[in-house]
Design goal:
With 139 residues, this protein is of the alpha/beta class. The chain has 5 helices and 5 strands, in the order βαβαβαβαβα. Helix 4 links the parallel strand 4 and strand 5. It starts with 5 loop residues before the first strand and ends in a 9-residue tail after the last helix.
């Protein structure tokens, strides 16, 4: 599983710590962390890369917080879905929000799942296994 790359987009240091610990306990330790939406899009779309060129990184899955500085999680997800390089990358939303509008928007934008923080590593791995992502090669 060491080649399985996860992008964790999380601005809260405590939630980041808990998510990383939970992921490591499940054997998922190849994790890149972005601390705001702008940084995440920089990693994924590459700074100044014209549309159609390879993304800077293409993780097997993105764990995306919604309440982010600079660019919020919904806008990050929308940008990913509107770019050919990232439109099919699985995104699991991690949030403390239970607002129906957030849930609906994430579903409409094709989020794989919507989990409430703190991250439960076993639940996350279950979702990845169900989506057949854990055996998929890193793109």
């Amino acid at each position: 599983m060491e080649k399985f790359l996860v992008l964790l987009v999380e601005d809260n240091p405590d939630d980041e710590f808990l998510a990383l610990r939970s992921l490591r306990r499940q054997g998922l330790d190849n994790v890149v962390v972005a601390h705001d939406g702008e940084e995440a899009l920089g990693y994924l779309l590459g700074t100044g890369c014209p549309a159609g060129e390879a993304a800077a990184i293409v993780p097997a899955v993105i764990l995306l917080d919604l309440k982010l500085p600079k660019i919020n999680g919904i806008e990050v997800l929308r940008a990913l879905r509107n770019d050919k390089r990232t439109e099919s990358v699985p995104v699991i939303v991690l949030s403390s929000s239970r607002e129906e509008c957030d849930l609906k928007c994430c579903r409409e934008l094709g989020a794989l799942a919507y989990l409430t923080k703190p991250v439960d590593g076993k639940e996350l791995v279950g979702i990845l296994e169900q989506a057949r992502l854990l055996n998929a090669p890193c793109r």
